Amino acid sequence: MNSRERVLRAFGKVGGLPDRVPIQFDLCRQLADHFGKKLNVPVNYTDNLYEDVTYRISANELRVAMGSDVVITGASVSDDFKIIPDNDGTWLNEYQMRMRQGDIYVEVVGYPLAHAETKADIDAFKFPDPDAPGRYRDAEALVKKFHHDYLVFGDIEVTVFSFAHQLVGMEKLLIDMMMETEYVIPLFEACAEFQTKVGLRLIEKGVDAIWFGDDFGTQVSLLIPPDIFRSQLKPIYTRMIDRFKKAKPDIIPILHCDGAVSDLLVDVYEMGFEVFNPVQPGVPGHLPMDMKNNFGELFSFWGAIDQQDLLPKGSDDDLEKDIMEKISILGKNGGYMVAPAHIIQNDVSPERVEKFISLCMKHGKY
Fold first, then answer.
1. pLDDT tens for residues 223-248?
2. Residue 135, SS3 per DSSP
3. How far apart are CA 291 and CA 295, in angstroms?
4. CB 344 within 8 A of CB 307
5. Over the stretch 312-325, which tens digit does the pLDDT of each residue have?
6. Core-most of 158, 199, 219, 303, by most CB within 10 Å?
């Protein structure tokens, strides 16, 4: 059984169980460079328009060599765009967000729509050209190389809500959503339109799934009241998925959503999503048994292994017990791809990455 069939079976797209639970993982640049050198595999980076998404869609040749069952691609920065760092070390990305490298992730320190109040402010903002030169060169090459043996995901993370708050600022957006300020829905619609065009181009290139990414929760609760989510955001995601399904009826819509978001998962299903990621561990409502019992008929699950504390700091025994628990519960009768809940950062040793992969292989067989 090749990786493509393994994931299709795990996601319920092909009848029968896979031979084992499929595996996926993302690597930060330091870990990717380390393993590329160790395994003598070239590490190819695709620079995404939003910097941290780069590590979702890069190093595919390396990751499949290490055991990943999927390939993840996405849009890259335009050939016509060049980053010019300022003297203070910050830079403008292609969205005109001012960025700074933080301890782990990049941070937005300047919001191009911080002044937005009206629909006219959104209409006047120039989004990048979704069809700019070079935007899908890497995606086309990866699909051509891997689609026979691997399921290929098209990544449009930082999709609507997260895209919007990176353009205007989180505090401003949340207040303005509650106040129903004029610009809010036009901003969501503009973000959705840009990412829908990107997703449709990725579908044209041949991807099998579209991976959305927006975080609606904190470590303890929702960021957005459910009624506001349902009135302002739910219709927009539904329309996006409808357009993707029209273009490719068997496309698999996947949502990455961090935080304690179990109270929204029925809505997420009703929008059309079929796979829920990352099943963030350690937050209310996300116990494996609760996820499987309450939502296992609605979704396949992808993720659930803690990369905040367990991978960098836990013992090998703790890691093994956690992997066994997640596979035995979330993977019962299929419906699960095991993965860390986010990109593995350089606080995780290379030896622990290898241990994680070996334990998933050891305990994942049906």
1. 999 999 999 999 999 999 999 999 99
2. coil
3. 5
4. yes
5. 999 999 999 999 99
6. 199
CB 216 within 8 A of CB 259: yes
Top-level class of domain 3-78+119-363 = alpha beta
Residue 255 makes CB contacts below 8 A (sequence gap 6+) with: 212, 213, 214, 268, 273, 275, 276, 277
Domain chopping of the chain, boundaries? 3-78+119-363
H helices present in the chain, as ranges: 3-10, 29-39, 60-66, 119-124, 137-146, 161-168, 170-179, 184-205, 226-228, 234-247, 265-271, 288-295, 310-313, 316-330, 350-363
338: which residues sit within 8 A by CB, 6+ positions away?
21, 22, 23, 24, 303, 304, 305, 323, 326, 327, 331, 360, 364
Whole-number Å distance between alpha carbons of 338 and 319: 13
Which two three-digit tokens encode residue 360? 């998933």
> What pTM, to 2 d.p., does this model score?
0.97
Q: What angle do CA 145, 146, 147 make, to 5 degrees?
A: 115
- Measure Cα distances from 93 to 39, 83, 85, 125, 299 in Å: 32, 7, 10, 15, 34
Phi, psi (5° rounding) for residue 160? -130, -70
Q: Are 340 and 307 in contact (CB under 8 A)?
A: yes
105 pLDDT higher than 90: no
